[in-house]
Amino acid sequence: MTTNSNSHDIVPAHLAVQAMRDNGYKNAAYAIAELMDNSIQAGATQVELLCGETKHKVVQRTMAQIEKIAILDNGGGMDETVLRLALQFGNGTYLDEEKHTGIGRFGMGLPSSSISQCQRVDVWSWKNGIENALYTYLDIEEIKNKQISEVPIPIHKDIPKTWLNVSENFGNSGTLVVWSKIDRCMWRTGKAIINNSEFLIGRIYRKFLNNDAVKIRMITFDLDDLYSTKIFEKEALPNDPMYLIDRTSCPEPFHNIAMFEPWEENEDEVAKFPYTLNGKEHIVKVRFSYAKEEARQGQNPGGKPHGKHASKNLGISIMRAGRELELDAGMVNNYKPTERFWGVEIDFPPALDDIFGVTNNKQSARHLKEFLEIDLASLPEDGKSIIEYIHELEQNDDPNVLLIKIAQKINNNLSLIRQLLENQTKGTRKDNSNKRHDPYKVEQSATVVTRERQSKGKFGASDKKESLPQIEKKAEIKETLVYNGLTENQAIELADLTVDKNFKYTWVKAHLDDSDAFFSVTSKGGSIIVTLNMNHPAYNNLVEILEKNVEEADIETLRNRLISALDGLELLLMAWARYEDEQPEGELKKMVRRARIDWGIIAGEFLKSE
């Protein structure tokens, strides 16, 4: 009886390679990025994505279709030993722990990313001129048919003229990786591949692109007509979800200027989390950003080109050695359009890969994701606080304590940033106005009624400062508005408007964290500042429900909002009734009743003016 020496291999190559095709790359752009990792790790300053198309006749039409995809770099190149290792699954030159300093590590990149998209990958690499190029390959069919069971020994082989003609960057050293028999790429043309890859690649390598450490050129060309004009060509620009880089792929007017500003005033304020592993301290940095006021101006800023761009960059950017692994949307409130106007970036060193749970395709940090998406308050048991829980983990040297602290910091800061973003657009009446409504009609009407009351001898505390110089009035009003949470620009604009138009009232909205009242009343600069408390349930049920997206809502939605607002008004009046009912019989109860009656009289005068 004849026996096959390979029949009992723990992992038969011809079967395993088929399973490895499903290694989890989200799409071709992520697989292409894996090859670019190798290029950058090899010291490349120029990387090219070359997409070769051929034309096919379909019924009466001739259509272009992707035939070959190549990645070319001017990195250090590989010798025979390293080239062969590079095409082995799970092997490579960065596996040792002391080499875990750059963007490479797992030894899965070149072969696994390639076969996730195609059935054949050919590789040329050279160190002293392209005439010395070494060549080897992997072919799925040959492996499945047991024609090859190991990476073919590299041989000297000329680089095909196809690639020499279309490229601009064949350096003295470098590597060319070519995919053919492409059967799993979701995009069928070179232009589609480039357009979809540019956004992701620009984001993954934004630090390298911004620092001019590497340039990435992307080209689509006709394989049957190499000497014609290239079909499509562009250079990758940084795509920064933090929007702190000046020159990016963000549309005008923020293509050459940052759209966001940093939460931290300087580098010293950046959140840093030290962690000691094997006697060496490593630092994890967490940065925050939020939209500038000018990015939120006008009607529906989220619907403008820069707002739509930001909507594709939602989430927390998880960076490893300056290279993005993933943009995690676990903390995003998808129902709020303002979520696109903040940014968070976590940057950690490769030495902490195991703690963060970095996957071998470098598309996720799964351990970190778990803590970003969980309610941290649910972790402690036996009535302990989260602070006590963290202290216990620290005493037990539990590595999860690092991830919990990071998630806790992000939760806390995002709460503050979200409030700031709300104040940017909801601080004044004008910000929520539409073309069919005078945004200051109410202030005008209330001012007219107040002047009539003054003429009848009814004076208030605010009236004493009406004679102040205009500059002093504006300064007092502005200072109060800033204290209540408006931005500097909003406060200046509103103070100027109030004084210049001689309004008696200033109507604003803010998060009054130290108050349970629905609104506050402050007399400053001869005016009465009425501040609605956005933290109060009455705000959501009476005000916000009527204001949001009025222009875009359908009739049924508006009808339901009116019903909800009416319910809210009735509940508000019932709350007053209960408050009055709970007062003990005597002078206090009489004062409360008198206040209701007096307010009703003045309210009648104000509402008659409408």
Brief digest:
The longest helix has 28 residues, at 555-582.
State the main characteristics.
610 residues, alpha+beta, Heat Shock Protein 90, 4 domains, eight-stranded mixed β-sheet, six-stranded mixed β-sheet, 19 helices, 17 strands, 37% helix, disordered N terminus
CATH architecture of the largest domain: 2-Layer Sandwich
Number of strands: 17
- Percent range for helical residues? 25-40%
Overall residue-averaged pLDDT value: 86
- Output the CATH class name of the largest domain: Alpha Beta
Number of domains: 4
Task: Name the CATH superfamily assignment of the largest domain.
Answer: Histidine kinase-like ATPase, C-terminal domain
Give the N-to-C terminal Cα separation. 103 Å
Bin the strand percentage. Answer: 15-25%
Radius of gyration: 32 Å
Note the overall shape: elongated
Biggest sheet character: 8 strands, mixed
Structural class: alpha+beta
How do the strands line up in the largest sheet? Answer: 5-4-3-6-2-1-7-8
CATH topology of the largest domain: Heat Shock Protein 90
Low-confidence stretches: 1-6
The total count of helices amounts to 19
Word description of this protein:
With 610 residues, the chain is of the alpha+beta class. It folds into four domains: 223 residues, Histidine kinase-like ATPase, C-terminal domain (Heat Shock Protein 90, 2-Layer Sandwich); 166 residues, no CATH class; 108 residues, no CATH class; 75 residues, no CATH class. It contains 19 helices and 17 strands. An eight-stranded mixed β-sheet has the order 5-4-3-6-2-1-7-8. Strands 9, 10, 11, 12, 13 and 14 form a six-stranded mixed β-sheet that branches. The chain has a three-stranded mixed β-sheet with strand order 15-17-16. Helix 11 crosses helix 13 and helix 15 packs antiparallel against helix 16. The longest helix is centred in the C-terminal third of the chain and has 28 residues. The N terminus is likely disordered.
